[in-house]
Amino acid sequence: MLTRLSIQNYALIDSVDIQFNRGLNILTGETGAGKSIIMGGLSLILGQRIESRYFFNQDRKCVIEGYFDLADYQLEAFFEEQDLDYERETIMRREVSVDGKSRAFVNDTPVTLNVLKALAERLIDIHSQHATLQLDTESFQLLTLDSVAQNQSLRARYEGAYRGYKAVLSQLSTLREAAQKANADADYHQFLYDELAAANLEPGEQEELEAEQQQLEHAEEIKRSLLGTVNALQEQEMNALVLLREALHQLQQAERYKPDLAQQTERLQSSFIELKDLSEEISRVEQGVILDEARLVEVNERLSLLYALQQKHRVDDISALIALREDLREKLEAISSSEVEIERLEAEVKRTEAEAVKLAGQLSESRQSVVGNIQEEVAHMLHEVGMPHSQLQIVLSRFTGNELRASGRDEVRFLFTANKGQPPQPVGKVASGGELSRLMLAIKSLIAKTSALPTIIFDEIDTGISGEIALKVGEIMERLADHMQVIAITHLPQIASKGDTHFKVYKMESAGKTATGITQLEIAERIQEIAQMLSGANPGEAAIQHAAELLGK
C-alpha cells in the first residue's frame, strides 16, 4: 500500500508530505484547492510525463517520492526480472530538472520510465469517472472471474504451461524453417560433398604434387646435370678425386719430415672421403631420376582437378577445400539429425499442448461456476446505490477448436443495462459515467474480498449522486477498505464521513505566491469540514449536528 507521498516543487505545491494509512483515506477541499494537483504529482511516479512549466519554483527541480509497503503483493519475481533490489518498504522516486530532463528511481536504482510505470501499475489503480474503459476490456473481465473463483494458483499453473507450450512450438517452427531451407539445398550440398569426398583430398598434397611435377618436367635436364657433376668428380681422366688423391699423397710425403702437418693431412683426407661419398650419392640420385611420361600425365591431371576445385569454390588452397568438405558434411548430418529433433519436438508440442488444454479446461469450469454469483452480488450492490433495475450479464464462451491464449480458452463479455426493459449491451456502449463508476465500485468491492488488489484511488467518482445513494456508495467504499487501501477524493459529506483518515486540501499564501497545502484532520476538524460540505463556509448548528451524526459522534 501507499504509506507516504512526498511532492516537492510541483504546480501550486511547494512542499507537501502525506502519511497515508490503511483502510479508507479521504481527501476533501474546495474546488480549485489542489486535489487534482496532488493526483497529478502522484501520476508522475506512475510514469506520466511532465513539463518544467508546471514547477512551483522554476529554479529548482521537481521531486516526487512514493513510499510503498509491498508485503502483500508477491513482487519479488518482478524485482529480480528487472535486476532491482527488493525491499519491503520500496521508494519510487521521480526527479525532473528545470531543463525538463527526467530521471526515475526504485530504491535509489535508476530505472526507465517503462519500468517505473510497470511497477506502479501493480501498486496503484487510479479510478475516475472518466477512467472506466478498463471495465470493457477482456483482461479486466477475466481478472474479475479469476479473482472471485480464487484461480490465482490455477491460472499461474496454466500460464506456465502455456509459456512452455509456446516456447516448444516456437522452437519447432524455427527448426522446421531451417530444415525446409536446408532440404531445399540438400541435393546441391550432397553433390558438392560427393565431388570433394571423391577427390580424396589430403593436407599438403598440392605442394608435394607441384614439386613432383617440377621434377618430372625437367627430369632430362636434372639427369644431365647430375651426370656432369659425377664426371667432374670421378669419371673424367683428370677428375677432382684423382687430383685430390695426388694432393693427399704429396702432403703425406711432406708429413714424414714435418710431423706438425698431421692436422692438415687429416683434414685433406676427410675431404677426400667426403667428396668420394658425395660423388657416389649424386650418382645414385642420378640413377633414380626417371623420365616417366605416364607419371607426369597423372600428376598433371591430379593438379588440374585440384586447381579446378579451388577455382569453383573460390578458395586459395587445398586446406580450404578440406574445410569446405567438412562443413558440407556437417550440414548434411544436421539435416539428418534435425529430422530426429523435429520428431522429438512434435511429440513435446503435443504433450505440452495437452497439459495446457487440460488446465485451460479447469479454468473454464472454475470461471463458469462463479458467473451466477458475480451477477447476483453486483446486482445487489448496484441496487444499494440507487440502480435497482440494473443487470450485469456475463457471457463466457470458448474459442473454437483447441485455440489457446495467454488467458486460457475463454472469451468473455460483460453486458450491462441500468434500465428496466432495456436489453444488456456491451458495458462501454450503454452506461453513463456515473453508472460505470458505481458498476466499477461494485466489481472492485467483490474482487477485493478474494484478491490482494493494489491501492485504489477514487477521483471524484461520486459526481451525479447525493443523499441516501451517496451514503450507500460510502458504505461500499468502507467495506472495500476492509480488504485494501482506498483513497477517495470526494465532494460528498456522506462519503467523507466514512473515512478512517481524513485529509483536507487547501490554498494558502506563501511568500507572495498561492500554494497548495494538505493537513490531516482531527475529529473536531472533521466535523467542521463535513459541516461546511453540507451547508457552506459558515455552517450552522444544525449542519454541525448533522456532521457529527454522520461521523457517529
TrEMBL record:
Stated role: May be involved in recombinational repair of damaged DNA.
Keywords: ATP-binding, Coiled coil, DNA damage, DNA repair, Nucleotide-binding
Coiled-coil positions: 209-236, 328-362
UniProt-listed InterPro entries: DNA_recomb/repair_RecN, P-loop_NTPase, RecF/RecN/SMC_N
Domain RecF/RecN/SMC N-terminal residues, every copy: 1-510
Pfam families: SMC_N
Protein name (Swiss-Prot/TrEMBL): DNA repair protein RecN
Family, per entry: Belongs to the RecN family.
Signal sequence extent: none
